[in-house]
């Protein structure tokens, strides 16, 4: 079994070896979820998006950049099938305001895909405010208006990846382990679906 694992590491593609170790499983899992939704049927909005999701052929794709658009204080009138915040919400000064704006921008039945770090060093770009465990992220999304039964959470991490990222932003390389040790989550993510009712989230 160990030999098979060794061979699997050696056959990793160059592109995969160059991926951020902390994000490999997260992106693979989230990509499968989106693929199952049928990307070519989805109107998508990404909050402060990088290059990863722009490679997918969606029906439509719109990106925002900060400070031109601040999800904490603004929302678009248009509604979307999928809104993506990939490693963004930890940087927001008022994430509770932001998640309520996201909820309003989703079509009924639309999905909010959110990914966040957990056991990752602070990285202020320009600020770094918040961390959520799986349970914490689910509670946060409930406060934003999502029904608890419509929230799926997941996480990935291991001690080796935690240690490697203390020194630098580690790449997967040949021998980075993808084993999941649930007590050491490096990344946490969720898929939150807006119900088909017209109820509005409570605003404090």
Which key features would you list for this structure?
single chain; 204 residues; Rossmann fold; 6-stranded mixed beta sheet; 6 strands; 20% strand
Commentary on this structure:
- The protein is of the alpha/beta class and 204 residues long.
- The protein has one domain (24-157, 184-193): Vaccinia Virus protein VP39 (Rossmann fold, 3-Layer(aba) Sandwich).
- The chain has six helices and six strands, in the order H-H-H-E-E-E-H-E-H-E-H-E.
- It has a six-stranded mixed beta sheet, sandwiched between helices.
- It is globular and about 45 Å long.
- The mean pLDDT is 92.
Q: TL;DR?
A:
This protein has 204 residues and is of the alpha/beta class.
Q: How much of the residues is beta strand, in percent? A: 15-25%
Q: Estimate the mean pLDDT confidence.
A: 92
Output the strand order for the largest sheet.
Answer: 2-1-3-4-6-5
Tally of helical segments? 6
The count of β-strands is: 6
Q: What is the string of SSEs from the N terminus onward?
A: HHHEEEHEHEHE
- Cα distance spanning the termini: 55 Å
Overall structural class, as computed from helix and strand content, comes to alpha/beta
In the CATH hierarchy, the architecture is 3-Layer(aba) Sandwich
* Overall CATH class: Alpha Beta
- Tell me, what's the shape? globular
Rg calculated over all Cα atoms:
17 Å
Low-confidence stretches: none
For the record, the count of structural domains works out to 1
CATH superfamily: Vaccinia Virus protein VP39
Summarize the amount of helix as a percent range: 25-40%
